[in-house]
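Hi,

Apologies if this is the wrong queue. I'm a grad student, and the batch job for NitT/TauT family transport system substrate-binding protein from Metabacillus malikii produced an output file that my downstream script rejects. I'm not sure whether the problem is my script or the file. Here is the sequence I used:
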Amino acid sequence: MKKWLFTALLSCMLVITLSACNQAKTEKIRLAEVTHSIFYAPLYVAMSEGFFEEEGLDVELTTTWGGDKTMTSLLSDGSDIALVGSETSIYVEAQGSSDPVINFAQLTETDGTFLVSRDEIDNFEWEQLKGTTFLGQRKGGMPQMVGEYVLKQNGIDPKQDLELIQNVDFANIPSAFASGTGDYVQLFEPQASIFEKEGTGHIVASFGTESGKVPYTTFMSKQSYLQENADTVKKFTAAIYKAQQWVKEKDVKEIAEAIAPQFEDTEKDIIETVVERYKNQGSYAENPILDKEEWTNLQDIMDEAGELPARIDYETLVNTEFAKDVSGK
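Support response: The file is valid. Your script probably expects a header line. Output copied below for reference.
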């Protein structure tokens, strides 16, 4: 009896020791995302398909709801990595940061918003916006800057040709439009598709298609973190690249199925519709490399909107070492 008990205890101790060793090998990363969106599908695929686990990573995801809050979390060491628009790193650098925020892996490479009309329009032309009320995004944010850039590219002066509303909080824009504010609204998915399904509005154009490629949402971290945790960052980037390739190769239904647990309140057909839209217009980057042309386009858009504090060299705030290493590019 005593021999049996000793053997059982020894087995338990062995299991506990092995478990502790495995846990010790797992590296934890605190990731802050600017919002929770189907636009970020490859990230959620990396989680659902176990790509982070394969790299020995335990990613703790927190939604910080806003670029300013996301950057505050990163700068105050509340998170290790942030998923947010690259413009935020430019704002921080322009203020004279001693520990620059570096973009090291790109997730999306187009704007993710759509122009939604209150009325159904068969053959939409941008000039139809003249004289209307346009419910835009927050001033200084990437969606609003891209929105104004696209309007100007299509011969619309946002300040003169229409009534531009941009004092509504991001979270309240859909409800403001639903309650009757604006003839047109700039919306992210899945809200745009939900409105279309309900008959509340109709998608007539894509800002992502019109604006061209930009580093719209990237993974970034403080330079000190990248230097001190290079192996961890490389593993993180490798997992993201695996997910990007997975999204590239799989059909819409498989992608929707993989990310559905992240959006329990969104109907499956809406998730599929949104994934298809973003995939078709090339919003999901196929590799994590942020190239120089995209960086230049970003600053041109910011400059056009009057929100560029200073031109920052590509090499100053972009590190492609990890992305090129894991993708072999």
